[in-house]
Specification:
Blueprint: E1 20-32, E2 36-42, E3 47-53, H1 58-63, E4 70-79, E5 92-103, H2 120-125, H3 127-130, H4 134-156, E6 160-161, E7 179-181, E8 189-191, H5 197-205, E9 210-219, E10 230-240, H6 244-262, E11 267-268, E12 274-277, H7 278-285, E13 298-300, H8 311-318, E14 322-328, H9 336-348, E15 355-360, E16 363-366, H10 373-383, E17 390-396, H11 398-415, E18 423-424, E19 426-430, E20 435-437, E21 444-446, H12 457-463, E22 473-478, E23 481-488, H13 493-502, H14 507-513, H15 515-521, E24 528-533, H16 535-543, H17 573-578
Parallel strand pairs: 3-5, 6-9, 11-18, 12-19
Antiparallel strand pairs: 1-2, 1-4, 2-3, 4-5, 7-8, 9-10, 10-24, 13-14, 14-17, 15-16, 15-17, 19-22, 20-21, 22-23, 23-24
Helix pairs in contact: 4-6, 4-16, 5-15, 7-11, 12-13, 14-15
């Protein structure tokens, strides 16, 4: 005996006409036409239209049941008079002979059927209703399918899934930890892992050759549109006896397949993905997360100026500032107002303005009047500028000018609608600097991952300026979004001690904070490398969702609060006492 259903609300078709069926689900909407009442019954799989005749004793009963109530109906499948081509079940409807009410819904605080412009906090408070809406529901289903496929692809390549601890030790690197006080060890704290970094490396030392995990990661950091506060998931992987290229091949196979199969027929870059050195990315795109759908390229214009005749930029070049140029194809006829807006944008950003040359049919405009014929010829040759094109120039401090030029590149492309549609453009950013300078103190700091191998090993650490040392670190980038980050790991204790020493940590700090891993390396560690694509960001890109919370079943809001479960929240004094901690009042 089937108690609740013979079919789902997505299954019935014309060939089922005449069958007696039982369906269960939520009342998606009702339409009372006087002599007939139509019910759209919805379950996880889809929607089926059901109909009750006014002559039936069920007519009054269904009128009194609110939408989103849960019911079971019995009835006969019949062919619809008006076919609905927009529904998979649109050829049929179910003539209802019995209705059983399982759960009556209260008046809804947000709507499930149709568009609802409820504020986000209300949607998150009633997330269980929000998740019933078709778009969000299908987002979460796609997420499940993508994760399943990720697992299959990793298994196919010889990787095994291992679970690593959630309660671990705090690390001095990266974002803020979420701390958990220990009841059995008074005054001491666990930390939720920012990633399984050390554990996956320990698995390699333990002789497990290829590891992966759909890993939860926890970071107490501020939210962004593409970053969820609190927790996120990543496809974490590591492999022994592997080079950077070995990791690339695995990730290109895995992530390339994911985008090919779930991209809704958009264009996808095929492996091998483009490799771009960090310094080249910063120069040409103004970002280490370049959006390759944007065709504009930034060029170094520093040596073009100095004695060009345009005194403002000549002075910038002579004083050590760096100059950048962007050629804008087919924009030589743009009005002056177009370039004035860019000039105003530069001033708003603190860069003192921008200059331009427009090669219009009426002659060269902008700062071209300061250039000789020879200099104009050099401009065309050096920057590949043709008649009908325009070129804009900007200058500033070496540390700041690249990022600003990147903003200009993006703004121009957006204003002119140059960014390629319906495409996923992938690349690897490689050759990251191992260290960077703290802008406030001038101290040497790790720029990416402290557990990475410097490309020159111990020799570079001993003999090079720290800021010139490159690391075997890499990011996978798609459409301007960092999808994955990884590195060839430093598996040599003496090299790790020296790397941390240059960043201001003596050996005792390394032994204290990373004792488990550094000790393991002393007993035979294989060369190993890994990577970790973000699951949430992958789904966000595939669905073209601007807000990451819409691809997570139960996300926190922008203040890192769970409005549904009312977390974080207070606890009772006994719980606090058990943990040997004391609360300090904070002034509002």
């Amino acid at each position: 005996m089937i108690e609740y259903r013979t079919h789902t609300c997505q299954e019935l078709r014309a060939q089922n006409a005449g069958q007696k069926v039982k369906l269960s689900g939520w009342i998606h909407r009702k339409r009372n036409l006087g002599n007939l009442c139509f019910i759209d019954l919805r379950d996880h799989y889809g929607i089926t239209q059901c109909v009750v005749d006014s002559s039936s004793e069920l007519f009054e009963k269904i009128e009194n049941i609110r939408v989103e109530s849960v019911i079971t109906i019995d009835g006969e499948v019949v062919i619809r008079e008006s076919i609905n081509k927009n529904m998979p079940t649109g050829d049929i409807e179910v003539k209802v002979s019995n209705i059983e009410l399982h759960s009556m819904a209260d008046i809804l605080p947000i709507q499930v059927f149709g568009e609802d412009n409820a504020p986000e906090d209300l949607r998150l408070k009633y997330r269980f209703l929000d998740l019933r809406r078709e778009k969000i529901h299908s987002n979460i289903v796609l997420r499940c399918k993508v994760i399943k496929r990720m697992r299959e692809l990793m298994n196919e390549q010889g990787f095994l899934e291992y679970q690593t601890p959630i309660l671990t030790a705090s690390s001095p690197e990266g974002a803020r930890d979420f701390l958990v006080p220990s009841r059995l060890n008074p005054g001491k704290f666990y930390a939720l892992p920012q990633s399984p970094q050390q554990f996956k490396q320990l698995l390699m030392v333990s002789g497990f050759d290829k590891y992966f995990q759909i890993a939860p990661c926890f970071r107490d950091e501020d939210p962004r549109a593409d970053r969820s506060p609190g927790e996120f998931y990543q496809l974490d992987m590591e492999m022994s006896f592997a080079t950077q290229e070995d990791v690339f091949q695995v990730m290109e196979k895995t992530m390339g397949t994911i985008f090919n199969e779930f991209s809704s027929n958009k264009k996808v870059d095929q492996a091998p993905f483009k490799r771009i050195a960090f310094n080249d990315a910063m120069l040409k795109y103004g970002s280490d997360k370049p959006d390759l759908r944007n065709p504009l390229i930034i060029q170094d214009a520093t040596d073009f100026f100095g004695n060009s005749g345009f005194g403002v930029y000549d002075t910038k070049a002579q004083s050590g500032e760096h100059l950048r140029a962007i050629v804008i194809p087919l924009c030589g006829e743009k009005p002056r107002s177009f370039f004035d807006k860019l000039d105003s944008f530069a001033k708003e950003e603190g860069f003192g303005g921008m200059a331009y040359v427009a090669l219009s049919s009426g002659g060269a405009k902008g700062i071209a009047k300061f250039f000789s014929e020879e200099k104009m010829s050099e401009l065309k040759s050096k920057f590949s500028v043709s008649d009908g094109d325009a070129i804009v120039f900007m200058g500033g401090n070496k540390k700041l000018i690249n990022k600003f030029a990147g903003k200009v590149r993006t703004r121009i492309a957006e204003d002119l609608d140059l960014i390629e549609k319906d495409a996923y453009r992938m690349c690897w950013i490689v050759d990251f600097p191992f260290y960077e300078e703290n802008e406030e103190t001038g101290a040497v700091e790790f720029s990416h991952n402290p557990f990475s191998m410097p490309q020159g090993g111990m020799d570079d650490l001993l003999n090079k300026n720290p800021f010139e040392i490159l690391a075997y670190q890499y990011d996978m980038v798609c459409n301007g979004v960092e999808l994955a980050s990884g590195a060839v790991r430093n598996h040599k204790p003496e090299v790790m001690y020296k790397a941390f020493e240059l960043a201001g940590y003596d050996n005792s700090v390394v032994d204290d904070k990373f004792g488990g891993m550094i000790n393991a390396f002393k007993y035979g560690a294989p060369p190993h490398a890994g990577c970790a694509p973000g699951v949430d960001r992958t789904i966000m890109l595939l669905l073209d969702e601007p807000i990451i919370r819409d691809v997570i079943a139960f996300p926190l809001n922008g203040k890192a609060q769970d409005l549904l479960m009312q977390a974080p929240n207070t606890v009772n004094q006994q719980q606090i006492d058990d943990l040997h901690i004391k609360l300090v009042e904070v002034e509002e």
